[in-house]
Amino acid sequence: MPNLQKEMEAELIPIFIMGKRYMVPESLTIMKAIEYAGYQFIRGCGCRGGICGACSTVYRKAGDYKIYSGLACQTVVEPNMYLTQIPFFPALRREYDYETMEPVAESIYQLYPELFRCVACNACTKICPMDVQVLDYISALKRGDLEAATRISFDCIQCGLCASRCMGELPQYHMAQLARRLYGGKIAPKAEHLRQMVEDIASDKFTPVMNDLKAMSVDELRKLYTERELEPAMSGEDWRPSSNVGL
Amino acid sequence: MKISYYPGCTLKTKAKNLEDSALASLAALGIEVEELERWNCCGAVFSLADDDLIHQVAPVRDLIRARDAGADKLTTLCAQCYNVLARANRLMREDEEKRKTINLFMDEEVDYHGEVEVVHYLDLLRETVGWDGLRERVTVPLEGMKVAPFYGCSLLRPSEVAIGGEDGGAPRALQDFLTALGATPVKFSASEECCGAYEVLVNPVEGLKRAGVVLSSVQESGADAIVLSCPLCEYNLGRKQPEIQAAVAGVRDIPVFYFTQLLAVALGLDVTAGRFELNIPSALKLLRDRKYIEAPATQV
Amino acid sequence: MSITILLRALDRAMLERVAEISGQNVYKCMQCGTCTSVCPMSGDMEITPRQAMLLIQHGLVDMVLSSRTPWLCASCHSCQVRCPRGIEVTRVMEALRQIILRENRDMVNPREIPAEAISEMPQIALVAGFRKLTS
Predict the structure, then answer these.
(1) Residues B193, B147 share a domain
(2) How far is B49 from chain A (nearest CA, A)?
(3) C108: which chain B residues are within 8 Å (Cβ-Cβ)?
(4) Which domain holds residue B108?
(5) Nearest C-alpha in C relative to B162
(6) pLDDT of B251 higher than 70
(7) Residues B200, C125: C-beta atoms closer than 8 Å
(8) Do B26 and B152 reside in the same domain of the chain?
(9) Per-residue pLDDT of chain A (247 residues; tens, 9 = 90+)
(10) HEC states along chain B?
(11) Which residues of chain C have a CB within 8 Å of the CB of A110?
């Protein structure tokens, strides 16, 4: 077997973690680099997969005044990156009774009247590590458009960086979450096929087939599997299987 | 020439009657406008501090959206929005240093230099259709309706952004508009005074008093109704009438209309375009009683 | 209304701050009183716009700042368009408000507005109110 592994020595680059300089391999993510430098995460680390919002990091680059942000688990280090993590920024979530709430914008206005302190400075959008157009969903909320707020805020991972930069002291991501809950649970049309499936399962439509399968031997199962009917490639929309047992 | 339309936050929720009647009228008159696809709240008031630029960013961003949409003009209905957008536009056109600083700050947008013109709907009407032209399009003249034209503050002050062209004289736009519709504009002392604006938030007692002064002035003039162009004025002078009547003696129910609603009636548009069910009750009653619109058969 | 003015009471720094934020030459005011007469809220103000200008000219800004005057002002601009000396009085009022607001002092707490009021009033009132009355 040919040796496909080549030994490579990664270039070491300097980065600054909370002001302290470390040399780390250039190919690492910020998260791995922080661990390489000897830190052990007890906060600011979660799924390591870019979706939980725990590892939001703020950084600057040499010779550049701008403020950048990214998820530590997804962002690769750069030379002279000057970073800190902001695992938590305080933003109080209002208590509310979802069941009795009316799915109208006024419900959000009553809980979060500070929404109207937004001055459209756009600092929130600029800092968002998920490229969510935060100002656009706040604007949508101000004009009562719950659908737009839901759609625009969809990728939000609740990291809190927007709230940390907000001039008006809004808790943007809490407002967006409430909008999504109201829209998704009370306004958006229900998925009829989902409701039907749940009903089918509850009414034992699939129980006989499941029991048959459970009673089969391994050989019988293997035979069923290898001889199953496959949808032909390039079949038209009106193709149907010859048997719809179990569908 | 492309005209973009800026609705403003309130029109989409609390002033659908202003928006729907306006858009229906524009369509009937053959004036094409396109709502901005992306817009943010304009800020409602123009920042008056010389050293404050961050509060200019909101309206400038909307002007940029209009520019990016390829518009030559940006039209709006709400008097407050008009005032802020027009003044922000002047700032970007005339103050080089502030323009540079604001553009530098808004580095996520392409620089703006005042390319778009901000025009209030009334001026748009006057410039494209003209008052004589409008008169010719009227199919239901509002004969006998005595209307008090309420300008409030934002359509007229400061003078650099006053609607109705720059002739510097007393405002005429609403009067000419009403005359074209066949109505009779009525003079009253509070025509250009403040409705109370945001006093409702912190000084509600004084706010009600102010609105009471305006309504008393309208009543004294013998007008049948007030016409205006701002959801906040409509709230202070219309929706708050029961509270005003409790606080100020002698104020009766006075119908309040958005000017575009009277336009929709005069153009003979379907009554649904006017969304009169969203006005205070005395408004719809006036239109039905005087037969400017038909009462539905089932109405008692 | 009589006030005793002592030299050491005059706060030139505050006067200059008002002038800077407003961009106005407050010394131009000749006390004609037109602003007060057109001001829709002057009847409720313990210090009228004209009086406010006089106090500012004398460096007694803190007297105006501790009155309701800047907060009763509705920014209607009537004073400004009528002033025979072309003083943008509305900007002077805004400067007075900004001096207080920039100390991180708000005149309205959004969370204390009654829920029905929030639902009822047009967004304009909330946006405008927060811009004028909060920092």
Answers:
(1) yes
(2) 15
(3) 201-202
(4) 3-122
(5) C81
(6) yes
(7) yes
(8) no
(9) 566 666 677 799 999 999 999 999 999 999 999 999 999 999 999 999 999 999 999 999 999 999 999 999 999 999 999 999 999 999 999 999 999 999 999 999 999 999 999 999 999 999 999 999 999 999 999 999 999 999 999 999 999 999 999 999 999 999 999 999 999 999 999 999 999 999 999 999 999 999 999 999 999 999 999 998 989 988 888 889 888 876 7
(10) CCEEEECCCHHHCCCHHHHHHHHHHHHHHCCCCEECCCCCCCCCCCCCCCCCCHHHHHHHHHHHHHHHCCCCEEEECCHHHHHHHHHHHHHHHHCHHHHHHHHHHCCCCCCCCCCCEEEEHHHHHHHHCCHHHHHHHCCCCCCCCEEEECCCCCCCCCHHHCCCCCCCCCCCHHHHHHHHCCCEECCCCCCCCCCCCCHHHHCHHHHHHHHHHHHHHHHHHCCCEEEECCHHHHHHHHHCHHHHHHHCCCCCCCCEEEHHHHHHHHCCCCHHHHCHHHCCHHHHHHHHHCCCCCCCCCCC
(11) 115, 118-119
* Residue B299: band (very low, low, confident or very high) from pLDDT cuts 50, 70, 90: very low
Number of domains in chain B: 2
In a domain, B296, yes or no: no
**Chain B within 8 Å of A136 (Cβ-Cβ)?**
yes
Find the CATH number of the domain harbouring C40.
1.10.1060.10
Scan residues 200-229 of A and list those with Cβ closer than 8 Å to B. none
Fold of A12-85: Ubiquitin-like (UB roll) (3.10.20)
Q: Is A143 part of the contact surface with chain B (CB cutoff 8 Å)? A: yes
Chain A, chain B: beta-carbon pairs less than 8 Å apart: 46
Among B122, B145, B174, residue at a domain's last position: B122
Tens digit of each residue's pLDDT (9 = 90 or more) over B12-66: 999 999 999 999 999 999 999 999 999 999 999 999 999 999 999 999 999 999 9
CATH number at residue B36: 1.20.1050.140
| Chain A adjacent subunits, 3+ CB pairs under 8 A | B, C
CA distance C122 to chain B (A): 6
Chain C partners within 8 Å of B153 (Cβ): 74-78
Q: Say what the pLDDT of residue A6 is.
A: 63
Q: Which candidate from C111, C115, C126 shows the least CB-CB separation from A116?
A: C126
CATH classification at residue B184: 3.40.50.11810
- Shared-domain flag, residues B62 and B17: yes
**Rounded CA separation A101/A114 (Å):** 19
CA A143 to chain C, closest CA, distance in angstroms equals: 8
Task: Give pLDDT, residue C9.
Answer: 66
Would you give the distance in Å from CA C43 to the centre of its chain?
15
Domain containing residue C98: 7-103
Of the candidates B92, B122, B152, which is a domain's last residue? B122
**Which among B5, B6, B9 is the top mutation candidate for probing chain A, defined by the most A β-carbons within 10 Å of its own β-carbon?**
B9
- Domain map of chain A by residue range? 12-85, 89-220
Task: Work out the mean pLDDT of chain B and round it to a whole number.
Answer: 94
Structural domain total, chain C: 1
CATH of domain A89-220: 1.10.1060
Q: Is residue B167 part of a domain?
A: yes
B185 and B220 both lie in a single domain = yes
Global confidence as pTM = 0.89
Shortest distance between the Cα of C4 and any Cα of chain B, in A, equals 31
> Between chains, do A116 and C110 touch, taking CB under 8 Å as contact?
yes
B256 at C interface, C-beta within 8 A? no
